[in-house]
Automatic annotation (TrEMBL):
Its EC number is 1.1.1.3. It holds the Pfam family Homoserine_dh. Residues 135-311 form the Homoserine dehydrogenase catalytic domain. Belongs to the homoserine dehydrogenase family. InterPro entries: Asp/hSer_DH_NAD-bd, HDH_cat, HDH_CS, HDH_short, NAD(P)-bd_dom_sf. It comes from the Bacteria. This is Homoserine dehydrogenase. It comes from Heyndrickxia acidicola.
Length: 333
């Protein structure tokens, strides 16, 4: 019997998930024992032409997605806190696993959704909320079984990193580098969330909650963008052996958490010095494993879809193991 899934939102990420499922059926069958069927797709515009298999169920009504018989999991790729939060809450209450790429939603409601998922015996995958294809959530979950994390520093926004790279490497002004980012599809027409640090701050909140189990007072956290950095400042830093990086930072210090999101000129000794272009990277300081750095594609259709499908696979495997364990426990000796 096929594993039925639905996709909420069919923009760049939703399409990436759909194509990832279609193009990786062999691997999914090998891992999960059954094919994965996209049983429904929620869209805003029902008339827009989409590259999907004939007969694929497409609807503008979430109620019709929720009514799909035997729905196992839902991939959520909607922008903003609502209606995503309402949809995910209802999916969890129905008993569906959920996988989300919605960082704004998860930064605000993540703890609440995780508690609800435990109450209803389902799982939430949220790897794609933080750094695209970089498996930082799974890495933290494994490390935290024994290690303590004392600090996280990350380049969590590919757009800002691309702009700073172009300003340094090609001597562009901020405005010229931003336009290039927009022309290449790395920046939105309104790039405010990226270049002012809001996007990176949402991702830092998610990592902070997982790593430390609590958060600082976010009203007191310094969040500074990159728009005020001049080409002259970038070139001066380069001449002195430094590079500007937009770094999200959270650390335990004196029994408190201190956080910031701001541009910093780092030396070649810093683990994020060589992270260029649209890549994301996160460095962790831990009690036993020492310092670890993960780097990779931070955004885009397929890197984000990859993170969501890896979450899905892990969740389904975990669910299958649980069922086998429960069934074996019922067999009389």
């Amino acid at each position: 019997m096929a594993i039925k899934v639905a996709i909420l939102g069919y923009g760049t990420v939703g399409e990436g998930v759909y194509k990832g499922i279609q193009n990786h059926q062999e691997q999914l069958i090998e891992k999960l024992g059954d094919a994965v069927e996209v049983a429904g797709i929620l869209v805003r515009d029902p008339l827009k032409k989409r590259d999907v298999q004939p007969g694929t169920f497409i609807t503008t009504r979430f109620e019709e997605i929720l009514a799909i018989p035997g729905l196992h999991a839902v991939f959520e790729a909607i922008v903003g806190k609502e209606p995503g939060y309402t949809y995910l809450s209802q999916c969890i209450e129905k008993g569906c696993h959920v996988i989300t790429a919605n960082k704004v939603l998860f930064a605000k409601y993540g703890n609440e959704l995780l508690k609800k998922s435990k109450q209803h015996g389902v799982h939430i995958g949220y790897e794609a909320t933080t750094a695209g294809a970089v498996p930082i959530i799974r890495t933290l979950q494994e490390l935290l079984k024994v290690n303590r994390v004392t600090r996280i520093q990350g380049i969590l926004n590919g757009t800002s990193n691309f702009i700073l790279t172009e300003m340094r490497a090609n001597r562009l002004s901020f405005g010229e580098a931003l336009k290039l980012a927009q022309d290449n599809g790395y920046a939105e027409a309104n790039p405010e969330n990226d270049v002012e640090g809001k996007d990176a701050a949402c991702k830092l909140k998610i990592l902070c909650q997982l790593a430390f189990g609590c958060t600082p007072d976010w009203e007191e956290v310094e969040v500074e963008g990159i728009a005020a950095i001049t080409s002259g400042e970038v070139q001066k830093a380069e001449a002195e052996g430094f590079r500007y990086k937009h770094i999200a930072d959270i650390r335990a210090e004196g029994g408190k958490l201190k956080a910031s999101v701001k541009p910093i000129a780092v030396s070649s000794a810093h683990p994020l010095f060589s992270v260029e272009g649209v890549d994301n990277a996160i460095t962790l300081e831990t009690s036993l494993a020492g310092n670890l750095t993960l780097q990779g594609a931070g955004a885009g259709k397929f890197p984000t879809a990859s993170a969501m499908l890896e979450d899905f696979s892990a969740i389904l495997e975990k669910s299958l193991r649980t069922k086998i364990h429960l069934l074996s426990a019922r067999v009389p000796v």
